[in-house]
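re: ur question from earlier - yeah i can do the single chain one, its not a big deal. heres the input i used so u can compare w yours
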Amino acid sequence: MVKSVRTVEEYLHYLESKGFQFQEDAIGFIFFGKHYTNASDEIINTAIELTLKVQKTFDGSFYVSLLETLLSNKIETRTEAIKFVKENELLAI
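and the output i got, formated as tokens:
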């Protein structure tokens, strides 16, 4: 069975259950990025994941910039996003 993509809300709850604490401004940035870019939940969740891996905390401006970069390069899936950032050496993951 293929794992379905979580909604952004589900993903944030999942991360919180793993110990990540998001301040109100971080939640605001996440949903601002979602509405500003009209990105899919899969891409939003991937941008959150990569931001946390690289920054070790949530950095709203980094997240929005990463999100814009992924979308401007027509990245549509988590797999494509990870491949893109590795190939372009955008992040040390």
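Residues 75 and 84 are 8 Å apart (CA to CA). not sure if urs matches, ping me
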